[in-house]
Amino acid sequence: MRPIIPDYLAEVLGDVESDTSGEPAGYIPELAAADPERLGVALAMTDGEVYGVGDIDVEFTIQSVSKPFAYALALADRGFDPVLAKVGVEPSGEAFNEISLESGTGRPLNPMINAGAITVHSLAGAKDLDPAERVEHVLQGLSAFAGRRLRTDEAVCASEMEHAHRNLAIAHMLRSHDVLTEDAGAVVEGYTRQCAVLVTTRDLAMMAATLANRGRNPLTGEQVVPEPVVRQVLSVMFSCGMYDAAGDWATQVGIPAKSGVAGGLIGALPGQIGIATFSPRLDAHGNSVRGVSLFERLSSDMGLHVMEVPATSRSVVRSSHVLGSGPQALRVLELQGGIGFAGAERVVKEVVDAPPAETGVALDLTRVHSIDDVARRMLLEVVRRLTLTGHEVYLVDPESVVPDPDPGDGGRVVVVDQVDRAVAPRTAP
Ligand SMILES: NC(=O)CC[C@H](N)C(=O)O
Predict the structure, then answer these.
(1) 289 C-alpha to center of ligand 1: Å?
(2) Model pTM?
(3) 160 annotated among ligand-binding-site residues
(4) What is the ipTM of this complex?
(5) Which domain CATH number covers 220?
(6) What's the CATH code of the domain at 415?
(7) Which of 1, 20, 36, 242 minimizes the number of CB atoms within 10 Å of its CB?
């Protein structure tokens, strides 16, 4: 059988191939010299499977796609408060290299624009690292996200440093506000090295998939940063990742994303997929022209917009039926899927608003694969209230999806691994 997903990706790539609009980044001479025809797209699944077509193994510099990952490292290394004290999370609506700070606080508006990213670089790793150690720490962190050891392109780094006047101006301004506390020139050099790390489209897809996979690299299994950090990073990518095109992107593509001036672009769809594209010609915002087209197409074809969610809550109650009869009758509520707040609300409505006439009630979780904390508490509250109204309650939970089934406060529940076990003791004389 022909490969289904690569065939589809090849078709999408073919549709955007002829678009030669835009220009490679001109302000970094080495980037201006890059082959503008390169084109690739890769999808990385959270189990490590990668589907890709085009130039997905060609190396290019990561540039601003490094920003969310460096932000993740800084948050993990220093904690939220010290990082938030120095860098905000508000979309700036401005160009990536705008010389601007938040009025009042003097902080850069967010970590995706250069002012924020330069500050973030200085916050990666322990406080007492010297500039070279900090660069190595960031390089190791980016490598952990990619699942292989990455290296820096010295020529691109040197080329950007020769023309880094604007970033140096930003850094000096940050230094004058004490947002940067280290030597401004050294921090810009470190940040520029971070931007000059070489990656392939395949690497970027894996890095994005690590974010999509709650911070665990799908290939190596390493938990690169803690989950709360991932949530923070994805949120900021969603609102600020595409600079002054972030609003258009959020509405039309709807995937937390980040672009870079070498032509890389990533999207991380929580719980599902990491996507990366590579095409060096950029639009007026500094985002890859064909990359944006590819993402628009993938998002609409594959229904990837984060606001487009399946109606999972409605299908949480798979069935409600009665086993046995007379005083032995058992009401069985068969639940399924992953249960969050909205799913648990369905169960509450079913049970509390219309209390079962039967004395025995079983909540059958055999087909439930996950239950989050709020849903667990809601289900146990349902159990507690049923007990208080004279019901005998069973939790059919063969895989222990409810880890600590204690309803507390007068509630009582019998945990069994098959629904028959809930019937049997009741029907026995
Ligand atoms: N948008 C980008 O990729 C910019 C990164 C680049 N190194 C710069 O600071 O200008």
Answers:
(1) 16
(2) 0.89
(3) yes
(4) 0.97
(5) 3.40.710.10
(6) 3.30.750.24
(7) 1
